[in-house]
Structure prediction request, 898 residues.
Amino acid sequence: MSEHGHLWQNGPELDGQIPPGAIENKWDDLRFSMKLVAPANRRHYHVIVVGSGLAGASVATALGEQGYRVSCFCFQDSPRRAHSVAAQGGINAAKNYRNDGDSIRRLFYDTVKGGDYRSRESNTYRLAQISTEIIDQCVAQGVPFAREYGGYLDNRSFGGVQVSRTFYARGQTGQQLLLGAYQSLTRQIAAGQVEMHVRSEMLDLIVVDGIARGIVVRNLLTGEIRAVLGDAVVLATGGYSNVFFLSTNAKGCNVTAIWRAYRKGAVFANPCYTQIHPTCIPPSGSHQSKLTLMSESLRNDGRIWVPRHPGDTRSPNAVPEPDRYYFLEEKYPSFGNLVPRDVASRNAKQVVDEGMGVGPQQNGVYLDFSEAMERLGRGTIEQRYGNLFDMYHSITGEDPYAVPMRIYPAVHYTMGGLWVDYQLQSNVPGLFVLGEANFSDHGANRLGASALMQGLADGYFIAPYTIGNYLAGIDQTAVTADAPEVTGAIADVRNRLSALLGIQGRRTALSLHRELGQIMWEQCGMARTAESLSTAQAQLQGLRESFWNELYVPGDAGSLNQNLEFAGRVADLIELGELLVLDALHREESCGGHFREESQTADGEAKRNDEEFSYVAGWAWQGEGAAPMLRREPLAFEAVRLSERSYS
Amino acid sequence: MKLHLRVWRQSSAEDRGRFEDYELDDVSPDSSFLEMLDLLNEQLLEQRKMPVAFDHDCREGICGMCGLMIDGTAHGPVPGHTVCQLHMRHFKDGDRIVIEPWRVAAFPVVQDLVVDRGSFDRILQRGGFISFATGTAPEANSILIPKDRVDTAMDAATCIGCGACAAACPNGSATLFTAAKIGHLGHLPQGQPERYQRVMGMVGQMDAEGFGGCTNVGACTSVCPKEIGQDFISQMNRDYRRAVLGRTGD
Prediction:
C-alpha cells in the first residue's frame, strides 16, 4: 500500500458503536437502553427525510405515526415512483415456513458469507432478526404476496442460498412493497404528519457546529432554492450505479445527496463495492440508455449455457446437448445456476471473453427454460415468470418461450455508501443514512432479495428507534435562516448552478456521462487491475476537466430545466468515480463484487486478504484538490468464522 | 430510420403552446421511444435549442413516470406497454409521429410533455391505504387469503399510476385508476374494515379534482400498460352504491 501513500492520508479509526453482549441480544439490549421522547413532545421535533423509496417512505411513515413532524423530499412527481419500485424478484425473511432448515442464524450466515466477510456482523444479524417482522408488516398493509392454494404465503429460493425464504409478488415485488410503504406514507400525509415535497432535489447538507441541521433544496419546477431546517436529516437516496452510465438503475438515480454530504464531512465507505447482476438483457447498440434486469429468480428454472466451441453460430435450438457448455452447473455442482451474483457474473464474462458469447453482438450467454417447461409445463413457467418473459420479448423482439433468453451482467447495486454506525448514524451527528445509500449490511456483495429487506428494516424498525434516541439526547438551539452556515450553503448551490450554466461549451451532459460510464466499465468493472485503475484515474481527471470546460447546458435555473438537473448529477458522479477508483486501487485483494485480477485463486476465484484488508474503508473529504483521508473500521468476526467462500 | 416528428412545445403552464416539427435521422429500430427522444434532444442541444422536456425514470415500464400521446394513443400503438418499453421497430422508416402530453383537465401541463399528476396522489390520500400503525401487524400467516382472491387483488395492484387511463378517456375520467386501488384493497381481508369509507372518500376526491365521469367507454383498459380490467370499475360502482345507500352489511 505504501507506494500509493501520496493518494491518501491515513486518519483515525472509525468506531461502529456496536453494543456489547452476545450477537443475539445486542439489538434488544440497545433498544432497552435507548432514551425515549414522550409522545406529547414528539411534535416538537422536525425530521427531514430525503428519498421516498422503501427506506425513505418507511422511515417517514414510522416517524409520522409516532408523532414526529416529518418533511419528505423526492425528485420524481410522486413518492410512488422511487426506484425500489423496479425490484422484481422478492424479499427474504427467516420465517422458515418451508420447514427446510431456515433460521435467523442461517439468514445471517448466508448474508455474511454472500458478502464475502466484509460486512459488519452485528448489523447483518439484526437485519436477519427483523426480517420476519417486515413480512408481517407488509401483509398487514395489503401487499398481495403470492400464496398457495391453502391461502398461506408462498416462497421461492434465490441465488446463493439453499433454503426457500423469498417472498414475492409475481415479478413485481419491489413495486408492491413500495406501494405498501407509499400507502402508509399517504396516510401520514393525509393526517398532516408528513409534509411531502415532490419534484424537489437536495443539493446540499447544512452542518452547524458539526451537526446536521438541514438541507438545501431546489424546487425543480420553479427553480426556487431554499433551506429546510430540522433536528435530524435522513438520507435514503439509493445507490450510485449510474456512475457506470449503463446500469439497471432508473435514469434519475444519482449520488448527489450523499456526495454533497460527503463533501460536508460524512465519511463515504467502500465505494468500490459495486454489484454486477448476472441476468440482464445485453446492450443492443450505441443508443442504449439503460439496461434491463431480468429477475435473478429466473435462475431457479433457467439453465445457463453457451456453445462449447467458440465461433459456433448455430441457432441455440440446433446446438445438440453435448455441444452445450453449462458452465455454472459443471463448475459448481452443488449450487449450479444458483451461485451468488458475483460468481455467476464473472463466469459469464469469462466465457464471452473466450469467444463463446451468443447473440448478434456475441455479448451474452443463454438462459434456457426448455428443460423446465418440459418438466413443469409451460403454464407453470408462465405463472412464475410471465411478465418477465413478456418484458424480454418486447425489448428484444425474441420469444423466450421459443428460443433461450440471452443475458449478460450489468451493474445493478452498490454496496458502498455513506458510513454509518450501528444506529445508522453517520459520523456527522444528526445525519442518518438508510437503505442502499449506506454501506452497512451487505459487505462486498449483496445476496438476492436482500435489498428490499434492508430498506424496510432500516426504515420501519431501526431508524425510528435510533432517531428517537438521538432526538431525546440533544439539547440544541434553533438554527435561524440567517445563520452563515445556511446562507453559505444556499450561496454555494446558486454559484454551482450558475457555473454549470456559464460554461457554454459544446458537449452535452449525456455525452460526458456516457464517457464516464465507458471509463468505469472498462477499467473498473467486473475485473480490475492496478494498471486499469491507474489508467482510470488519469482518464477521469481528464474527463472532469472536459466537463468543466466543455459542457453545454441551455436555459436558466429559474424554471424546469431537466438538462441542468442532469448536468449537476453527472458532475457529482464524475467526482464519485474518482473516489471509487481510488478505493478499488487501495484494496489490493478480491472480495465479493470487487475482483482484483492480481488476487485470485488457482481456479480463478476471488481471493481475499484478511490479514491486511479485513476492514471497512471510510473516506473523508479533505477539500478540493487534497487527497482524501482513509479512516478504517476494523471488522471483527465472532459469530461467523472467517473462511474462504466456496460454492462448489 | 428517418422520422418526421411533430412535438408539442409549451414553455410553461401559462404558455399557450404549439406544435413544432423536427426531422430525425439514424434512429435504430432497436432503440426505445424514449431513446429516440434522447437522440432528438441531443440534436436540439447541438443546435443550441431547448430540448424537449419529458418525464421518465425507470425505463422498464414500472415506475409510471413516463407517458405520452403518440399519434393520439396513450403510450403509443402497442397494447400493454408504457412508452419507455415501446421500441422503434414498431414504426416504419419515414413515419410521421405526433407526440403530445396527456390532455386531461386534472393534469395541467408543466412544460412540453410534462404534466402534473398530483391529483392522483390526492385521490389516494382519501383512503387508498389500510389504517394501521407500524408494529401492530399480526403474524403474516394468520391472515389466510385464497389464492384466486390474492391473484385478483394483484391484478388491480399492478397499476403504475401513469395516467394513461385518464388521458385516453373522452371524459378525462380517473375511474380506472381509482377503481384499481379500491379493487386491490377490496379483495383482501385486510381492506374490509375501511371498504366503504374508502370508496366514498376516493370517488369524492376524484370528482373534486375535476376528473370527468365514467360512461363505460373502455378506452382506459385498452391503453392501460398493465391491462387492468373493467370489472374493477363495476366493483367500485357496486361498492359506491352500497355506501351511498347505507347497505354495507354483507
